[in-house]
Amino acid sequence: MTSIIISVLFAAALPYALAQDAPPTPEQIAHQTWADNSNTQICKYTAWTWAAIIAAMLVYRWTLHLLRHVRRLANLNHGTTSDGRQKYFSIPNENYAKAKRHLISAPLFRKRHNREFHLSSAMNVGTLPGRLQTLFLAGYFVMNIAFCVITINWHDSNKTYYDDARNRTGVLAVLNMIPLFLLAGRNNPLIWMLDISFDTYNLIHRWIGRIVVIEAVAHTTFWMAGKIAIMGPAKGWAMVTTAMVPSNQLIFTGTIGTCSFTFLHVHIALAIIATSAVWMHLDTLPQQSLLLGAIICWAIERSLRLYRLVRTNLGNGVSKAEVEALPGDAVRVTLRIAKPWKFQPGQHIYMYMPSVGLWTSHPFSLAWSDEQPTFGAEKTLPLSRQDLFAARKSASMSLIIRRRTGFTDKMYRKAELSAGGKFMTTAFVEGPYGHQNFQSYGTVMLFAAGVGITHQVPHVRDLVAAYANGMCATRKVTLVWIIQSPEHLEWIRPWMTQILGMEKRREILRILLFVTRPRSTKEIHSPSSSVQMFPAKPDVGALIEKEMGGQVGAMAVSVCGTGSLSDDVRGAVRERSAGLLAPLGNPLGKVLQPILKPTVGSLTGAIGEPAGDAMRSVQVQAKREKGYEEEEKPESEWWGGKALGGGKVGGGNPLGLGK
């Protein structure tokens, strides 16, 4: 993309160097002054359009934040499946629900949205935008077309419209470089201001880049047409041919770069070259100040990255990482950060590991944190505000990383070949970025596929702890994890053992495990009705519909995994819900946060409860009445123990899952 910008700049700059225009006449000077004023007005209209969109989104998003906060406070101490105390929050506004279902959270066509398109194994062309995103992009594209043609006299006998159109398209191309640069950065302030994911901004960044290229091509085309009209076809086309020689070379180079895994570095390098070329092209022109604004946006974003790195990783020593190879082609990375922060569910980081990936950074979800109070070993209250803040910081944070190619493959092989299957190295952490909070929802359903469990485990711990302390509206949490083999349970075994031992966990949490490629049915073992395993792929729609039958209050559905799973969950939610909130931000997985409302009448019971297994339900209930510890211990030992070594097949086949 950037190489095309450079090519059209060369196409425009070279003829300027080869041909000298005659001194302008007074009439031309007056006309140019009028054209400059028109271009200035167009820039103001574009800026006001952006300001209006941001203001509208700001009001919308912060209104939602306020409503969620009120809903959480209103339901802290009541609400169960039977008492209906949270029923008010399960009744949707009909018009708003339709808008969310058919526009705000709808895919462009029928279903596909997050699953990527690949022209080849090396060329990924991205994902389809949603309907609301498409509406915005189409509107912005139409606005740019309109601004390219309005106020220009296309019937002028002197053919000044060539110069006017050339200037207008050039001004708009430079003006659009400001949002192009701003939305490209992960420290973009609009991410937290508007609660819109970096993925969405990156999508808009790519489409604005295409608009800039089109306007740059139009800028050059109008200049060429004007030269041909003035100089005649022979001389004019000779200059066009001369200009396009370097263009073809650069376009070819850009195509090669797009197919390479080093595209990001090539993209940045070419962006710097293109920006420098535009700066020289705009020498002495007022539009240079617009380009300066784009450069400032880029410089601030890069400075913030450097600041985050220094602040987090230097001071009390240097951040370290312990990398441990796990079954199922994965590694567990335990980060001991020099200056840790307060961990929140849904956060992700960019990790630099020089011994493996040199200067490159890679995004990963934070899966776990071990809290370590710093104001004393005894259970005493913090003595100061600083003590309270320090008490909330994390002693270590952990990641689960699936082995793929490149960086992750090198890291896995190094751990596998190290003594004990692990190694310690220096690592630098940039972050944290993003977070989500589901504590205002009465019912929460979390879907994960494979390593996507890293995004959901922190939510499970957060909601169970908040429920035990009476600090959330949540009364039901269902975790659905889809894995290929039972050995993948080892990835989160130490953390899930802690969760299964948490106070009041059994009252709120249900875990459903779906093993898609078991070696034998003997590997499938369900220790209780609250932790069940099935040798099949889940029927996502049936699971959601069943959960809605016992819904308490507003319901959130989150998914982190493959693009196809995200599309399946989104589709199932839209089919069965009356309302759907916009996706939350997570560059490592697609998250939906719908407010589901009951639409199926008389469905009752919990997900995963075998329809004909009444005796087992009675036995489980009897165990619960005897006490918490009696059934807890087998479940804790089962996760990563019997679950990996076989056992009896259990759990039945509720709702015809996997059929």
TrEMBL record:
<keyword id="KW-0813">Transport</keyword>
<feature type="compositionally biased region" description="Gly residues">
    <location>
        <begin position="642"/>
        <end position="659"/>
    </location>
</feature>
<dbReference type="GO" id="GO:0052851">
    <property type="term" value="F:ferric-chelate reductase (NADPH) activity"/>
</dbReference>
<keyword id="KW-0812">Transmembrane</keyword>
<feature type="domain" description="FAD-binding FR-type">
    <location>
        <begin position="302"/>
        <end position="439"/>
    </location>
</feature>
<dbReference type="InterPro" id="IPR017927">
    <property type="entry name" value="FAD-bd_FR_type"/>
</dbReference>
<keyword id="KW-0249">Electron transport</keyword>
<dbReference type="InterPro" id="IPR013121">
    <property type="entry name" value="Fe_red_NAD-bd_6"/>
</dbReference>
<dbReference type="InterPro" id="IPR017938">
    <property type="entry name" value="Riboflavin_synthase-like_b-brl"/>
</dbReference>
<feature type="transmembrane region" description="Helical">
    <location>
        <begin position="135"/>
        <end position="155"/>
    </location>
</feature>
<dbReference type="Pfam" id="PF08030">
    <property type="entry name" value="NAD_binding_6"/>
</dbReference>
<feature type="transmembrane region" description="Helical">
    <location>
        <begin position="45"/>
        <end position="63"/>
    </location>
</feature>
<keyword id="KW-0406">Ion transport</keyword>
<dbReference type="GO" id="GO:0006879">
    <property type="term" value="P:intracellular iron ion homeostasis"/>
</dbReference>
<keyword id="KW-0472">Membrane</keyword>
<comment type="similarity">
    <text>Belongs to the ferric reductase (FRE) family.</text>
</comment>
<keyword id="KW-1133">Transmembrane helix</keyword>
<dbReference type="GO" id="GO:0005886">
    <property type="term" value="C:plasma membrane"/>
</dbReference>
<dbReference type="InterPro" id="IPR013130">
    <property type="entry name" value="Fe3_Rdtase_TM_dom"/>
</dbReference>
<feature type="transmembrane region" description="Helical">
    <location>
        <begin position="167"/>
        <end position="186"/>
    </location>
</feature>
<protein>
    <recommendedName>
        <fullName>ferric-chelate reductase (NADPH)</fullName>
        <ecNumber>1.16.1.9</ecNumber>
    </recommendedName>
</protein>
<dbReference type="InterPro" id="IPR051410">
    <property type="entry name" value="Ferric/Cupric_Reductase"/>
</dbReference>
<dbReference type="GO" id="GO:0006826">
    <property type="term" value="P:iron ion transport"/>
</dbReference>
<feature type="transmembrane region" description="Helical">
    <location>
        <begin position="207"/>
        <end position="230"/>
    </location>
</feature>
<feature type="region of interest" description="Disordered">
    <location>
        <begin position="620"/>
        <end position="659"/>
    </location>
</feature>
<dbReference type="Pfam" id="PF01794">
    <property type="entry name" value="Ferric_reduct"/>
</dbReference>
<dbReference type="InterPro" id="IPR039261">
    <property type="entry name" value="FNR_nucleotide-bd"/>
</dbReference>
<keyword id="KW-0560">Oxidoreductase</keyword>
<keyword id="KW-0732">Signal</keyword>
<feature type="signal peptide">
    <location>
        <begin position="1"/>
        <end position="19"/>
    </location>
</feature>
<keyword id="KW-1003">Cell membrane</keyword>
<feature type="transmembrane region" description="Helical">
    <location>
        <begin position="250"/>
        <end position="279"/>
    </location>
</feature>
<dbReference type="Pfam" id="PF08022">
    <property type="entry name" value="FAD_binding_8"/>
</dbReference>
<dbReference type="GO" id="GO:0015677">
    <property type="term" value="P:copper ion import"/>
</dbReference>
<dbReference type="InterPro" id="IPR013112">
    <property type="entry name" value="FAD-bd_8"/>
</dbReference>
